[in-house]
Specification:
Layout lengths: L10 E4 L6 H5 L2 H7 L3 E4 L5 H11 L3 E4 L1 H8 L14 E4 L6 H11 L2 E7 L5 E3 L6 H6 L3 E2 L5 E5 L11 E7 L11 H7 L6 E10 L2 E7 L4 E3 L2 E3 L1 H8 L5 E11 L3 E10 L7 H10 L11 E3 L13 H20 L6
Parallel strand pairs: 1-2, 3-4, 4-5, 15-16
Antiparallel strand pairs: 5-6, 6-7, 8-9, 9-10, 10-11, 12-13, 14-15
Amino acid sequence: ARVAGFGPDTVLLMVLPLAHNYNLGSPGMLGAIAAGGHMVIAPRGDASTVFSLVENERVTCIPAAVPLVVNWLNDPALDRFDTRSLTLVQNGGARLSPELRDRLRKRLGCQYQEVYGTAEGLLNLTRLNDDDEKILTSSGAPICDDDEIKVVDEDGREVADGERGELVTRGPYTIAGYYNAPAINARAFTADGFYRMGDIVVKRGRYVWADGRKGDLINRGGEKINIDEVENLMLKHPALHSVALVAMPDPVYGERACAFGVLRAGATLTFEELSRFLLEQGIAKFKLPERLEIVPEFPVSGAGKILRRTLREIIEAKLAAERSQSAGPRRGP
């Protein structure tokens, strides 16, 4: 709560499901209560509902998630409300791109705080007085001095600061094991008791920069594609409201990149236009999406995370249907 600046004057607006760990205690409701603040519960997450409550209840902080932020920033209704009481918007569950972090700060005139961690323990936050580079790009630093973090390679060897690898952690509030689950514990923990976060990161000192889940990297014939990098470039296109990049199966390369996009109202976008735009942004050709799927909205979890597994299932089903159609009807002997 101290790292988020919570105190007796804190008015926390709860938009996401109350039982989710991020909303509950990262620092969330428990942090606000411990600091002597109070909470307002929003019945819905649309901009009109949320920001009318900000205006009427003098809300100071909103724990948000990527789909909420994207929708708010693209909703003209936001300009109708007085948001001067708002001092902080947090984001958790999935990393918010630097561009959207900056737009959020400027549009709402408040500070931004990235919240990163796991229900099993470790909690990282950017600090309110961090420089712009950390606030706009990093996943923060552990909230507790006793949290131990290191980055390891695929063989479990610790790598130097600035090198990519998996984040592992050990500390006073990180679990030491799952109850009565030795097989799971053997996979989830290192021999010296560090919990495997499953996230690919770069660490510099105590700060980390999340690069996505281990399974979210797209392996195109041995070339690894960082989905965050491509999505951040896609978000700069004026036609796109929100984006997601997922792997689609390929018989030659193993995986190729498929871009899903939700368009802004009245906008259109072709695959060729997207490819041309990304090349103008300086993207390496092997990282280009090789298919574009426009959808009305993304499937999201109760905590506001885009369900990438569902998107992968959608494109896999489409590819299977296309293969079936191209094969044509079977002929008899």
